[in-house]
């Protein structure tokens, strides 16, 4: 989704209080730290290739963060160490961090696709 379109929808949701989960600065700070410093991430896709969650292996814990639904619900803690979190512990980060997180997922997925293409081409040329 275009950043400006996402920002427009975000403003609309702020005005009409239409978020799946509430905002929390502390969660935003922790997620910012994970996005900036965590190199061990795993994206989880459904059978159609749509990314729903990202696992951050950070400080001996696994944080599974929801990244589906654009700026409506992206960025809340979905599971912690494999256990679902309750709705009262699910909080959103800032819009800016949601945008950064979604872009990170796109970049990571593109990187994996490029690696797959290179492997395929290497195998294709090796067999010809």
Question: What is the overall shape?
Answer: globular
Biggest sheet strand order reads 1-2-3-4-5
Question: How much of the sequence is in beta strands?
Answer: 15-25%
| Rg from Cα | 17 Å
Q: What number of structural domains do the residues give?
A: 1
- H and E string: HHEEEHEEH
Distance between the termini: 41 Å
Main beta sheet strand tally, sense and closure = 5 strands, antiparallel
What is the mean predicted local confidence, pLDDT?
84
Number of distinct helices: 4
Structural class: alpha+beta
The residue ranges in which pLDDT falls below 50 over 5 or more consecutive positions are none
User: What fraction, in percent, of the residue positions are helical?
Assistant: 40-55%
- Per DSSP E runs of 2 or more residues, the count of β-strands stands at 5
Task: Kindly describe this structure.
Helices cover 49% and strands 20% of the residues. The model has no long low-confidence stretch (mean pLDDT 84). The termini are far apart. The chain is globular, with a radius of gyration of 17 Å. It has one domain. The longest helix has 32 residues. The chain has a five-stranded antiparallel beta sheet, with helices on one face. The protein is α+β, with helices and mostly antiparallel strands and 128 residues long. The protein is built from four helices and five strands.
Quick recap:
This protein has 128 residues and is an alpha+beta fold.
Strand and helix map with partners:
Blueprint (H helix, E strand, L loop, with lengths): L2 H14 L8 H13 L3 E5 L5 E8 L2 E6 L3 H4 L3 E4 L2 E2 L10 H32 L2
Antiparallel strand pairs: 1-2, 2-3, 3-4, 4-5
Helix pairs in contact: 2-4
């Amino acid at each position: 989704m275009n950043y400006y379109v996402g920002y427009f929808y975000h403003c609309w949701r702020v005005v009409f209080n239409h978020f799946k989960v509430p905002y929390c600065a502390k969660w935003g700070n922790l997620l910012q730290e994970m996005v900036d410093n965590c190199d061990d991430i795993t994206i989880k896709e459904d059978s159609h290739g749509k990314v729903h969650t990202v696992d951050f292996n950070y400080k001996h814990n696994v944080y599974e963060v929801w990244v589906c639904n654009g700026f409506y619900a992206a960025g809340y803690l979905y599971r912690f160490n494999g256990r679902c979190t309750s709705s009262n512990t699910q909080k959103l980060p800032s819009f800016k961090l949601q945008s950064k997180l979604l872009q990170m997922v796109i970049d990571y997925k593109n990187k994996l696709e490029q690696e797959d293409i290179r492997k395929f081409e290497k195998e294709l040329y090796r067999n010809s």
